[in-house]
Specification:
Layout (H helix, E strand, L loop, with lengths): L6 H25 L8 H31 L7 H4 L22 H42 L8
Helix pairs in contact: 1-2, 2-4
């Protein structure tokens, strides 16, 4: 427990919140007005919430990498972390936890690598989504900027 680090726990905390956010967005998109027709303030609030999720998943992504490179299990070779870390790894106190082919440590390292990939894909999709949301906001603001009401003087 905790031998890899805290990244799996953090992902377990963020995942339900993300699922709720995505399900609400899908519900609003299909059963409400499309996001392209939302008021600008509502779009900005939704985009700000997406920025919060991007920050959370960025933190999880960096923690996943940190746990992969600095965990007690030697997932990464000592040479790959020597350029920034001059501290040696602590000694393993549990038997059979090393990076033996097919061992427990090898499986945990593979799971941590899969977690890095999963969080990375989620982060990329959130970034693509925010680009689309910002494009919608800019298009709406641009269309309002071209509108000049005439004054009846």
């Amino acid at each position: 427990m905790g031998i890899v680090g805290s990244s799996p726990t953090l992902v377990i905390i963020f995942s339900p919140l993300t699922l709720v956010h995505v399900m609400v967005a899908i519900y609003l998109e299909y059963f409400g007005r499309p996001m392209g027709l939302w008021r600008t303030s509502a779009k900005l609030a939704h985009t700000l919430l997406e920025v919060c999720f991007i920050c959370a998943w960025s933190a999880a992504f960096s923690l996943c990498f940190d746990n992969f490179f600095t965990s007690l299990i030697p997932c990464a070779s000592a040479g790959s972390i020597a350029w920034y870390n001059e501290l040696s790894r602590p000694e393993l106190t549990l038997p059979n936890l090393g990076r033996n082919k097919g061992g427990v440590g090898d499986t945990l390292c593979d799971y941590q690598l899969a977690l890095i990939c999963l969080v990375g894909v989620g982060l990329v999709t959130y970034c693509i989504n925010i680009v689309i949301s910002l494009f919608r906001i800019f298009e709406k603001v641009k269309s309002y900027a071209g509108f000049r009401p005439t004054m009846p003087f």
